[in-house]
Amino acid sequence: MRANELRSILAGRDFRRLYATRIASQLTDGVFQVALAGYVFFSPERQTTAGKAAAAFAVTLLPYSALGPFAGVLIDRWRRRQILVWTPILRAVLVLAVAGLVAAGQDGVVFFLGVLVVLGVNRFFLAALSAALPHVVSREQLVTANAFAVTSGTVIAFTGAGFGYLLRRVFGAGTGGTALILVSGAVLFLLAGLIATSLPRRLLGPHLEDVPKQTSEALGSVLHGLVDGARHIARRRPAALALAAISFHRCLYGVILIMTLLLCRNHFTSDADRGLAAFAMMLGVSGAGYFAAALITPPVVRRISKETWVAWLLAGAAVSLLVLGLPFAEPAWAAGAFALGVVSQGVKLCVDTTLQESIEDAYRGRVFAVYDMLFNAMFAAAAAAAAAWLPTDGRSHLTLAIVIVTYAAGAIAYRATAARSVQAPVPAPH
User: Fold this and answer.
1) CA angle 421, 426, 427 (to 5 degrees)
2) If DSSP codes are grouped into helix, strand and coil, which group holds residue 42?
3) CB-based burial of residue 353 (10 Å sphere; 0-12 exposed, 13-18 middle, 19+ buried)?
4) How far apart are CA 374 and CA 121, in angstroms?
5) CB atoms near residue 217 (< 10 Å)
6) What is the C-alpha separation between 31 and 39, in angstroms, rounded?
7) 3-state SS of the chain: helix, strand, coil percent to 5?
8) Do 52 and 109 meet the contact criterion of CB atoms below 8 Å apart?
9) Cβ partners under 8 Å of residue 334, min gap 6
10) What value, to the nearest 5°, has the Cα angle with vertex 419 and ends 415 and 424?
11) Which of 14, 121, 351, 380 has CB 3.0 to 4.6 Å from 242, enough for a Cys bridge?
């Protein structure tokens, strides 16, 4: 990451405001997720199984991921600044409702439905952030801006998770303590919405008066808009390949994360609080890997291209899991979590930038919403599938071997396909 370029980006007042909105919201995401993880997976009164973990992932990720394309159509119609203002406020109200359910000891369908809505609303927020970024930085600065904003946002989410863990130690691991953590998260969500009010109303688009009439008409129909967006992506092979790469990685990453959860809960220790501490540590070192990827990805892609870097990252995932994963020992697994953090964020940065460079602004909301849908749906589907054969303690040499081989094969296939696609001309955004 070039220091001079980063200073130039940070000098932009509107970028700083957009960035502050992201930071406040993602910090709260970390608090919210730790409260849920502690309540569902690491409660002393509950035993976590692979099936239960997969069911929780499916309930909280798969259904609201299906909202992605519909959210995208609205993001391409509504002022993105208003989305950034009102979605955190709505989430604060919903989180307070979930806190009430937790205080009442509810953990059934109504509870998960509340969580589903909280996370579903976040689709609007995250997709709007990605679609808005090209309006506050120049095209030449997108790689560095993505590396800084997206990665530091992810690191802040991990920081929020650490803060949530500290709140758990203060408020307690019971239902009352979890409810208080959620109330604290609601206050932080309100702060994110307040920060977003400092952005000019029309700055972030979409500017529908500047796009062809047929695009504006397409926004009137969700299904028509999705077909139109799919055709837009189909004409841009690098964008389509980028979406395939992130979907492939998230599928395998879903298997590894559910293994990590089960290992921390039932293999590395049998104590629930110690298991949560181990899982938090895994997330922390993975967050350090995200930060490392932000530092190395911009200079690397300037030398070897985004496509080559993604191929190397996928290959690196295979090697790191082979060397560090197979012993199923806590220190080695933590080192592997760092390596996968580098892979995850490195691939995501390349994909984000590819989409922002090759997708027209009027389509960005829909494309990034579909991107979010694939990002989460592939993860949850893989976790659910893995639960069919993973043991309660998460140890499965066969599963890990399959993931390693698949990563290696994917790296080879992606590199070969990308080499052919870069030879085809890419239509420039209007």
Assistant:
1) 155
2) coil
3) buried
4) 16
5) 12
6) 12
7) 80, 0, 20
8) no
9) 281, 282, 285
10) 145
11) 351
Q: In this structure, what is the dihedral angle of CA atoms 85, 88, 89, 93, given to the nearest 10 degrees? A: 170
Verify cis geometry, omega within 30 degrees of 0, for the bond prior to 206: yes
Cβ contacts of residue 323 below 8 Å, gap of 6+?
A: none
Nearest to 350, CA basis, from 123, 63, 96, 144: 144
Q: Where are the alpha helices (DSSP H) in 323-396?
A: 330-358, 361-386
Instruction: Report the CATH number of the 12-210+224-421 domain.
Output: 1.20.1250.20
Please count the residues of the chain. Answer: 430
The alpha carbon dihedral of 158, 255, 272, 52 has a sign of positive
Distances (CA, A) of 417 to 245, 246, 352: 11, 15, 19
pLDDT score of 215: 46
Q: Which two tokens stand for residue 97?
A: 């409702």
Residue pLDDT, tens place only, 160-210: 988 988 898 899 878 889 999 999 999 999 999 999 999 888 888 776 555
Query: Which residue, chain included where needed, has tokens 């095209």?
Result: 139
Quick one: tokens of 87?
């979605």
CA–CA separation, 161 vs 170, rounded Å? 14
Domains of the chain, by residue range, sit at: 12-210+224-421
Task: Give 248-294 as a DSSP string.
Answer: HHHHHHHHHHHHHHHIIIIIS-S-HHHHHHHHHHHHHHHHHHHHHHH
According to DSSP, residue 141 is labeled G
pLDDT per residue as tens digits for the range 270-283: 777 788 888 888 98
- Give the separation between CA 339 and CA 321, rounded to whole angstroms: 9
pTM of the model: 0.70
CB-based contacts of 67, cutoff 8 Å, min separation 6: 120, 123, 373
On whether the CB atoms of residues 294 and 151 are closer than 8 A, the answer is yes
